[in-house]
Amino acid sequence: MRKPPLKILFEDNELEIIKAKTHDVQSQNKATSFYSNISDGQEQLSEGKLYQCDTSYSSSSLHSSRTLLEESQWQNYQKRIDSESLSEQAKKVFLIPTQSSEEWLANFTEKCLKVECFFKDTTFNTIIETTFNSDDQQLKQTLVLTLDYFTNLVTFTFFLLWKAVWNENQQDMTQFVSNSNSITEYLALMISLRVNEFRIDFQLLSIFESIIQPFPDKSIFKECTDSQRSSLSIDIIQQKIFMPLMKHNQVLPWSTDEVAFILSLINSQFYADLQIRNIIVKGGLNHYFRRINTISQFIIYSVVRNPNKHDRQDALGYWIDLAEKLQQNYDLEGLFIVYKYGIQLLLKDYIGTMPVLFRDLNRIPKINAFYEEHIKHNFKDSDNQKQHLYIPSFHKFITQIKRLELQIKTNKSLFHQISDIMFLLIKMSKRQQVLYQQMCPKISENEEQMIHYFTKGIEKELEANLQIPLDKETLVYIELIKLAKNIN
After folding, report:
1. Same domain membership, residue 161 and residue 304
2. DSSP one-letter string for 364-382
3. Domain Ras-GEF, which positions (predicted)?
4. Which residues contact 70 (CB under 8 A, 6 or more apart)?
5. Domain identity same for 223 and 271
């Protein structure tokens, strides 16, 4: 009997890619994007340059009755923030653990000045002014995503509030920040598009209301608050690593139907909790590729570990059957991991030239034809399709973005194409949030263990069997080649 959903799924220090928390920037590798790295508390801006900022602004001036909440209200807000969901840098901005409100404001003002200097040194002023003076809603949404990609969601939002207060008689951000209606429009767009990164609460709304006048109707935040209430918290299923008992030469102790459901659930949850900036810009891709590399290596190992060619056929047949089930789910991300990055790589690099009687040869072209047909559009028009999961390939998205990043160095106009892809990712994420919430109540205890295994246990098992850390990719490759050549 299926039981109600637990506070489960995929939180682990080693799997930051799938958890709904802000990553600690200091703990991650340098951003793979060449764009400016303005991330709460970081000194370096715009490819390593340090900007000398105008210090004529006074932090003490922020003690305006019109703009500053009472210190008790700030402290109340501090208590209501889930500090566990903030990076160390974000904590310095949002929380006041040891600082007085004056110290907090001085620190925050310094950050805002740095952000302002960055904007003065770019073309964003012109872009912002042109966009928000137009009536093109799609263009405004694109701008919101682009701003976040080039800067930082939370930093830029509070920077706008700060500018709204202090730029009334200045023109360096012209019609955008000097017009409170434009700022509220930005906030509304930001919240509607980026629910996962910016979980709004009513205490923070009160801060916005105290600064921005006039403030729009609170109904614009309904989607965000509703999503916050309905979202599942991410928690560890159990402390001990779950390792299933398997029979001799058994690939996995579950049917391919069961495994396909779990992999599609994991992929759906990945999109549902997608934090685009943290994953694409802040180093989260390392965790993403580690996850898919681990499953790929496990697929290859499960086949080549058997020197007997008939056992290899059985193992390979299991994964081909799984790929067909993922095809039935319309899960392109699952097919990329299992078929393209697992089966296809196995056949090409490991056993393609081995004397193996490949009895499942006729099944491969059908899977490949399905994948190649749908990867072209990557389910971008699946909003109204309800009969399947329609999980797109995230790898396809990230490949497109990284290709554009290289081209944009010589052609700045292409950054709009990056925004278009991110806007599409937002739509995909919202669709998967709905599907994921529908799937979660159906999870059984056995399926919880499977989730735990595929997100944590599979890596531990593979490292134990190979006796090699998986981050030593060259050694892992050599060991798998040795196993592949040992055939009888």
Report:
1. no
2. HHHHHHHHHHHHTTTTTT-
3. 259-336
4. none
5. no
What does DSSP assign to residue 441? G
Tell me, yes or no, whether 215 and 269 share the same domain. no
**Domain boundary at 167, 196, 230, which?**
230
Q: For CA atoms 262, 268, 273, 276, give the dihedral sign.
A: positive
**How high is the pLDDT of residue 441?**
74
Domain-embedded: residue 247: no
The residue range of the domain holding 398 is: 256-485
Q: Per residue in 221-231, is it b (16+ CB within 10 Å) or e — as a string? A: beebbebeeeb
**pLDDT tens-digit map of 78-102:** 444 444 444 444 454 444 444 555 6
Residue 186 lies in a domain: yes
More confident residue, 70 or 57: 70
> How far is residue 73's CA from residue 79's CA, in Å, rounded to a whole number?
10
Tell me if 10 sits within 8 A of 451, measured CB to CB.
Answer: yes
- Are 223 and 265 contained in the same domain? no
**CATH number for the domain harbouring residue 398:** 1.10.840.10
174 with 103, same domain? Answer: yes
CA distance linking residue 7 with residue 238, whole number of Å: 11
Cα–Cα distance, 26 to 458 (Å, whole number): 28
pTM above 0.85, yes or no: no
| Tokens describing residue 323 | 């790929």
Q: pLDDT band at 273, cuts 50/70/90?
A: confident
How many residues are recorded in the chain?
Answer: 488
For residue 409, tell me if it sits in a domain: yes
Of the three residues 213, 230, 247, the one that is the final residue of a domain is 230
Q: What does the alpha-carbon distance between residue 14 and residue 166 come to, in Å, rounded to a whole number?
A: 43
Separation of alpha carbons 303 and 305, rounded Å: 6
Q: And the tokens for 127? A: 């872009």
Residues 202 and 287 in one domain: no
CA nearest neighbour of 85 among 193, 281, 235: 235
The CB density around residue 97, as the number of other CB atoms within 10 Å, is 9
- Which residue has 């393209």 as its token pair? 340
- Please report where in the chains the tokens 């934090």 appear, as a residue: 275
pLDDT digits 0-9 by tens, 139-187: 666 666 655 555 554 555 555 555 555 544 344 433 444 444 555 566 6
Neighbours of 471 (CB within 10 A): 10
Same domain, 220 and 317: no
Q: Residue 45 pairs with which residues in a beta bridge?
A: 49
ω into residue 307 within 30 of 0, thus cis? no
Q: What element of type H or E holds 304?
A: helix 285-304
106 and 187 share one domain:
yes
Identify the helix (H) or strand (E) that includes residue 344.
helix 344-345
Residue 4 lies in a domain: no
